[in-house]
Structure to design on (1482 residues):
């Protein structure tokens, strides 16, 4: 990756610009193109004042096409430190950290230095938090701040370069690499890379096994199905454990509890927290639950709309490829694909709009829960678009092909203009043979072709467009110069900064990075593996290769094609975990069904639905599912037995805190004793001690209780009395035995 | 319950004896009947010394037939207090209590008085804990202490009487009653009553609904099935929540973590706890897991053995009742019952033996996990014996009756001696009609008759035998007196104590109370409700009545028929929770199957297996199960939204502890600020502050960073510059627009 340098914009030599960010924390991109001069100025003044009011230093520079860039950094080191310490203490109050921060602020900060992610997070909060929580309350693109188009941090290109070099030079990320990512881009993104990493590692097994079984067992092998299912379970359970473990190691476990309020949240009434005494805004969870139920109709509608579109295109495709013999066939075959590529995005955007509307309606309190709800809805859409086509082929086309195909004439009109005679437009009423390879072809398409296409769209295309756009911009600027002497934005840049400012202006143009899309990609991929890989065991191999590139690609994307993301924290991969579980469970059903239907000639019982035993199919699925659930339980139990560094760390901290407290309170010696649970060897009891207890006095007077306990004075008495009893009993026994003689 | 008094042994007037326990904590029953005099004495001496060594006062009295009763109590109040405080601190160290105990021991004890349960528990531990942990290491019936037959606390008859009076006089136990039970008999037993209580309350609904649907819908109604299934889910989920809640309220949450080591536990090696530095004995969890897998063959064998027995008796019964027309039929019908009642207990005891052997093999570290493992095995046995007969009728006899019955001749030999001719011994080869009421009759038997029988066996029979036994003992004693003047054990009782001692001797004869058997009963009962109640909707009504009595009966049992139980702690009903979940899940399957098979004429599709659609059956079960799982998820989510007093309490304590700590460390004012997360309104930034940050100096020299941040001195500069930019841009825009004109 020596040519990495060349990747960076080389219009002007940015050598120096890449070395320093001039201590800038954030850049506020203020665009006043649409607003009038007076208003724009007023707004601008308000903005700068707001920033200064919360202790942020500002420098103003000119931006591209009628925008101003406000460079922000926290003014005094003292202020930053206070912020950091406060947030740490608060973490601890909310139970995120088990160990209390050092009582001395300075001491704490020196013992636990401030990471870049921490600093950037806090500064961002300072800018965006509502005023009553002590922030500047600047919410980009909304409310009063419509003209603030973005608040973004500047890339640390030195680091990025080194980072990508390093990534591309090694196969696996180790813990150090991950925590480095965490310290730069925050836990949320670090979690993505951690997940991608363990997923990649886990893939090696099904890749190897898949390859073997592809050679030895062929497709639809029950053995492969079982092993693959087992693998899915183990992977999901492992990740669950790994996740919490990382959260603990990174000191963010339970951080989701103190996520940031959504400004859009509408409360019904204000109640006082019985515990902290703080005022909390309340919205009835049951109302929310009721609204959440709207997801059901939403899912149904989505399934119906997308389903019918997919089904139609599917039908047309079948008709053209397998019925229509007329001219242009080779071109017409692509007709459905064209329809899909045109109609699908439109539909999806509409449905996504609905989804977000719905999520707003559910009115969540925190950004996290809001995101999670949105994700779950998006997942439904993805599920339909990604898997439905294969479902159709596997469970409709193959078994029922011979019934359906004859009725596909309805689609004949799509090709009518090209047909030479009617015959070409009528499906054969009988003797039609379904295409056995269709299913396999489809799976290969989704697991190889689609992945590659996706990668190109995701990484390469944006890069090219970006380059083009910048060239275009430069040319335009020059033309403007020549045409009328109006100064280009660069006109009054200080020479020392100009390179830097060009870089910043470029970064201002970039889009924001959204980690959820990358997550979605991986989860959907996992879905193919667990649901359909039995059709084509090589699936995992393709994924293994793809993900090696994917990981580096995403790194490149973050480094070059998006603004530097705000380093948010997170304690898990959130809702995606449920998605994983759901998919691996679903896999136990589909895989079983596929094996039952296609095992053997890989074509289903000669492709006719009648020869399929419905009860056999159901029974297979039923069993496979319950085995899956059973195994899951077992694996979970087994994993829970294993102690992990994270959990150990946590236990240790807990214990330390308590021990500490104990020592403060009842002194070292006592603490040890209490902790070890040792018991002072009880003092010998003599009648005297008892007397002290009861107040001395002859056994004559005093309460019956006292007399009872003073009958035998000390253990010697008791022993003597007991001896007596035993002896007596013994003699008595002897006596009786004598008599019996 | 005025006649309660009469329930107590009225041989001698124990009026006084019932009022006081002479401050006795425990009675050690030392029996030397078998051992020789010398050895017996030596052992006895050792025993008394061991007790005294750990600070326990002893009094010795004569016991029945060659036994000595050693009365034990903690010698000095100081010693007790130390024990209590130590255990509380330890609880806290292990995370059982969130709030730290008062730093001053006295203060703590006064603020949180010692409950009777707590005292008794600690004294019992003092007696039984191994010596190295500071106990006397006396383990009844095992090791050196074979001759110590029991260590039991004395009943507080005053309390018992009042308690039972109270129970019988009210319908529902409230929180106060439960915590009273907890303070007397420990959390473990309190949890049983709490469970029984909520179960009873929940039963009211299915009882009412069941009664209605019995009148309106008849049996096998899908509506009833759905509602009942829903109820099961809600109940189980509710209890899960309730359980943790109670645990928190009673301050025992997570107490299972510090359960007591099993003396029998064998460790592989000793490791040092990385955290506490204590030495811990380790046994590989994987070895254990491997051994746990032995449960599978065990379950299979049990199923096979018990199953075949039940099936045989079932076959005989069917043959006799529905084929055999000969004489004595009315008596012979009971033959299978007789066989069962004879063979079953023997088989069960054998299998239970196996189970306990297996559990020992699994070599658990703590008594709790040991118990849990045993329980799960016992549950398997119960499951088979309780439910298999109904399964046979529902899923074998009814659908396949017409195929099987003709082959039942094999059982003819059971009645051969009584038959008059061969014809009576041969089953009709065709045209046999199965008995439609059998299933219902069976369910009614198990849900009504069996419950009553069980109650009699459990409570009344023991009471009678006890009474008889005591009479017999008294008579024998008198005879012995007359025959040879040997003194009865009561001979040298001090008159003041004699009544008390008689009472103690009687209590020594009693069996120990085992709460698990009572739990088992309830769980099995719940099973009938969730699995088969669709056959006879009145089930719940019968259970409702039964359980009202059951609760009081169990109280009576504890009070009169068993020794006072050691008040152990627990933080849940343990393994029974899983059993509950399993049964309600199983219910979703069986109920669906029953409805599908028998809905309509309540006899299955004219009783012939061929007319049953296998796929229909499977599909019904499949759907019902998945609806069940879905609903479960929903209910869990909904319940998790509800805040409960227990969880609130916990949060409050957590918060308090941290706040406290904070105040200790960084002072009231700072604490408030940090807690409220408020931010000091940032100080205005002027160039001066910046200069102080960077060290003052003209912008000429210094690092580029410094110069960058000093270009605009303070916010006014920035604003001015920004204004300029905006103005320029505006004019430029105007200019362009002019040109375009």
């Amino acid at each position: 990756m020596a040519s990495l340098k060349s990747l960076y914009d080389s219009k002007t030599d940015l050598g120096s610009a890449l070395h320093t960010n001039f201590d800038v924390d954030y850049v506020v991109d203020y665009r006043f193109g649409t607003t009038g001069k007076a208003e724009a100025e007023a707004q601008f003044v308000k903005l700068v004042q707001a920033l200064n009011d919360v202790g942020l230093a500002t420098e103003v520079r000119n931006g591209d096409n009628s925008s101003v860039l406000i460079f922000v950094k926290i003014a005094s080191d003292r202020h930053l430190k206070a912020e950091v310490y406060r947030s740490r203490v608060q973490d601890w109050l909310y139970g995120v950290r088990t160990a209390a921060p050092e009582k001395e602020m300075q001491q704490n900060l020196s013992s636990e230095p401030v990471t870049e992610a921490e600093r950037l997070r806090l500064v961002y909060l300072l800018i965006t938090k509502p005023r009553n929580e002590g922030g500047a309350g600047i919410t980009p693109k909304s409310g009063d701040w419509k003209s603030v188009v973005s608040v973004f941090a500047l890339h640390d290109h030195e680091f990025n370069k080194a980072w990508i070099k390093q990534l591309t030079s090694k196969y696996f990320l180790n813990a150090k690499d991950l925590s480095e990512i965490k310290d730069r881009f925050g836990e949320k993104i670090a979690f993505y890379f951690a997940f991608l990493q363990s997923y990649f590692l886990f893939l090696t097994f099904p890749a190897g096994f898949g390859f073997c079984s592809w050679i030895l067992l062929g497709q639809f092998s029950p053995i492969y199905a079982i092993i693959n299912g087992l693998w899915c379970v183990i992977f999901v359970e492992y990740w669950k454990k790994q996740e919490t473990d990382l959260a603990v190691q990174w000191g963010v476990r339970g951080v989701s509890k103190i996520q940031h309020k959504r400004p859009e949240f509408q409360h019904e009434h204000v109640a006082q927290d019985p515990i902290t005494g703080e005022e909390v805004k309340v919205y009835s969870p049951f109302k929310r639950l009721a609204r959440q139920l709207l997801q059901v109709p939403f899912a149904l509608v989505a399934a119906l709309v997308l389903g019918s579109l997919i089904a139609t295109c599917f039908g047309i495709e079948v008709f053209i490829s397998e019925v229509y013999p007329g001219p242009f066939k080779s071109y017409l075959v692509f007709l459905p694909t064209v329809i899909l590529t045109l109609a699908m995005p439109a539909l999806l955007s509409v449905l996504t709009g609905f989804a977000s509307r719905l999520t707003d309606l559910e009115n969540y309190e925190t950004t996290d829960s809001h995101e999670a709800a949105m994700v779950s809805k998006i997942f439904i859409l993805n599920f339909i678009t990604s898997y439905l086509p294969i479902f159709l082929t596997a469970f409709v086309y193959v078994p029922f092909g011979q019934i359906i195909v004859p009725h596909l004439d309805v689609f004949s009109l799509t090709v009518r203009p090209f047909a030479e005679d009617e015959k070409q437009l009528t499906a054969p009423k009988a003797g039609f043979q379904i295409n056995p390879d269709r299913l396999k072809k489809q799976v290969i398409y989704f697991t190889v072709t689609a992945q590659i296409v996706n990668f190109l769209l995701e990484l390469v295309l944006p890069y090219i467009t970006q380059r083009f756009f910048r060239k275009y911009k430069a040319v335009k600027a020059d033309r403007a110069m020549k045409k009328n002497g109006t100064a280009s934005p660069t006109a009054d840049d200080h020479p020392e900064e100009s390179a830097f400012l060009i870089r910043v202006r470029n970064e201002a143009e970039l889009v924001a990075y959204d980690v959820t899309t990358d997550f979605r990609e991986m989860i959907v991929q996992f879905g193919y593996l667990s649901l359909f890989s039995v059709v084509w065991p090589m699936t995992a191999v393709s994924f293994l290769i793809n993900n090696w590139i994917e990981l580096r690609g995403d790194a490149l994307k973050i480094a070059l094609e998006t603004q530097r993301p705000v380093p948010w924290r997170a304690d898990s991969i959130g809702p995606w975990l449920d998605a994983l579980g759901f998919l691996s469970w679903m896999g136990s059903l589909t895989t079983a069904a596929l094996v039952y239907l296609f095992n053997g000639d890989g074509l289903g019982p000669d492709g006719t639905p009648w020869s399929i035993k419905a009860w056999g199919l159901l029974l297979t699925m039923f069993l496979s599912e319950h085995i899956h659930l059973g195994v899951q339980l077992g694996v979970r139990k087994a994993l829970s037995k294993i102690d992990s560094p994270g959990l150990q760390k946590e236990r240790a901290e807990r214990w330390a805190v308590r021990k500490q407290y104990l020592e403060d309170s009842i002194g070292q010696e006592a603490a040890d004793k209490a902790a070890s649970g040792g018991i002072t060897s009880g003092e010998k009891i003599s009648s005297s001690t008892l007397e002290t207890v009861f107040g001395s006095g002859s056994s004559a007077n005093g309460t019956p209780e006292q007399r009872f306990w003073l009958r035998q004075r000390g253990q010697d008495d008791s022993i003597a009395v007991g001896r007596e009893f035993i002896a007596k009993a013994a003699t008595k026994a002897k006596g009786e035995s004598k008599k019996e003689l």
Q: What stands out?
A: DSSP finds 26 helices and six strands in chain B.
